[in-house]
Design goal:
signal, mainly beta, 14-stranded antiparallel β-sheet, 265 residues, 14 strands
């Protein structure tokens, strides 16, 4: 369930905006509300910063040790396109934290990755004076620096911000190839729906829906099936709802906007 939950949370970061603060509730048929995603975007004429914080609640939080995932993209706006300089992906649970920081060098076509891990482990100690074994939690840290084998000009958040230029009524499909997309090895195909495809998809959403996109996600591993996520934008150009259809044993996964505030620059 977690993998599909995260696909949906990432998919709802596809925002076309200036400066905003938005929250989406995520529900699963079998479990009810399992989490929410808070998205903030700040930009001026030259720079942008977008952050997505995905938080689990209820039964999902219990099963996933209060898991919180944060995605942050910072960079420049050049000719109406979002060009990332840095992308930070953080995963936190009760006892573990992993921070992956990607640095983009677009001139050299290189991406440097620094991965930092922290975890709490039980350390056993023998006290010869009392002949007792004691246990205490200690923090262990590690840090690793590498250069990615393949250069990608976007991270998942900057790529979605660029969707309006890459996928529209004129160019109906867009192959997402970005750091942090899916599992970094498989692409996501974004399609602009119209005519009969749009009419079929719009029945899944509430009123006030304008553009609808389909995210076609390749299997997360060889034993799983293809995933399709429908994302729907309202008439003012902002994402309103998302739907990941029937998943074996958990049912539908949906995301709906519950808070939305836009500040124009």
């Amino acid at each position: 369930m977690l993998k599909y939950f995260l696909i949906l949370l990432i998919s709802i970061s596809s925002l076309f905006a200036q400066s905003l603060s938005t929250r989406y509730d995520v529900d699963v048929s079998l479990f009810g509300n399992v989490g929410y995603a808070d998205i903030t975007l700040k930009e001026d004429d030259k720079n942008y910063e977008i952050k997505l914080v995905a938080t689990t609640v209820g039964v999902a939080a219990t099963l996933l040790q209060n898991r919180v995932e944060t995605f942050t993209s910072k960079g420049k706006i050049i000719g109406g396109r979002y060009i990332p300089d840095i992308f930070i992906k953080t995963k936190e649970t009760i006892k573990k934290t992993r921070v992956q920081t990607y640095y983009f060098d677009h001139e050299k076509k290189e991406i440097k990755l620094i991965e930092e891990k922290t975890k709490l482990v039980n350390e056993m100690n023998f006290d010869p004076a009392t002949f007792k074994v004691t246990s205490k939690e200690v923090e262990k840290k590690s840090k690793k620096e590498t250069t990615l084998d393949k250069y990608k000009e976007n991270d998942v958040l900057s790529s979605y911000l660029n969707t309006k230029n890459n996928c529209n009524a004129k160019q109906k499909t867009y192959k997402l190839f970005a750091v942090g997309a899916h599992n970094d090895k498989n692409d996501v195909l974004v399609s602009y729906l119209e005519d009969l495809e749009r009419e079929s998809a719009v029945a899944n959403f509430s009123e006030g829906i304008a553009n609808i996109y389909n995210l076609h996600v390749a299997p997360l591993d060889k034993d799983e099936s293809v995933v399709d996520v429908l994302v729907a934008f309202d008439n003012d150009g902002f994402l309103k709802e998302a739907l990941l259809g029937e998943i074996f044993w958990v049912g539908k996964i949906t995301a709906k906007r519950v808070y939305h505030k836009v500040a124009c620059n």
